[in-house]
Amino acid sequence: MELLGAVLLAASLLGTTAWGAQAPWPDEPSHTCFFQTLSSPDSEFCRGDLEVVYPQLGDVGCSYIPQCHQYRWRISREWGSPRVRYPWADKSKKYVLVLVDPDAPSRANPKNRFWRHWLLADIRGTDLRTGDLKGRVLTDYVRPTPPPRSGYHRYQLRLYEQPAGQHIALGPEEMLSLGAWAMESFVERFRLGSPVASTQFLTKHHED
């Protein structure tokens, strides 16, 4: 979150208020970039110091993607996969990383949950510590692209410890579609257990 802090400092030097009681909701148009962290219950999903870093934004974990500087457009149309770092990863173990949207097509009607945006297995703990992931790609990274007028979507990253000797793979039916993925069944099938760390960020369609 160092980059976000630098932006907020710059805002304060310009005499604007980026946080506090007078801070606008993230939808409000403004020449100043307002970054807002998630409130409960969404913030409770974030645990374990898992970092997800996009260009110019830094660590977006547990925050809204602001509309200013075309950030919502850029995360959905321009930027590739983020750097994901977990400083507490065990160097001797491997991990599985999942990125899903549980709000497809909308949070009010999530009939296609979970939409699979990224799936990596065999991630070495040493690579997680640096954020330079070289795991086995099961699902290529798909940018967050919330449909118009569907409100905010949660983009959730879950990091699991991969059982020793376990070969993680998608089944033939799972590979046919990214939407309506039975993520819980996948986790149970490979005995992944609970995530060792998780985080999420929220964004909406760039024109909303």
TrEMBL record:
- The residues the entry assigns to the signal sequence are 1-23
Source organism per entry reads Aythya fuligula
Stored PROSITE patterns: PBP
What transmembrane ranges does the database entry give?
none
* Gene3D superfamilies documented for this protein: PEBP-like (3.90.280.10)
Keyword Nucleotide-binding on entry: no
Name of the protein in question: Phosphatidylethanolamine-binding protein 4
Q: CDD domains, per this entry? A: PEBP_euk (cd00866)
Q: Which SUPFAM superfamilies match?
A: PEBP-like (SSF49777)
Write out the entry's keywords from A to Z.
Answer: Signal
What family does the Swiss-Prot or TrEMBL record give for this protein? Belongs to the phosphatidylethanolamine-binding protein family.
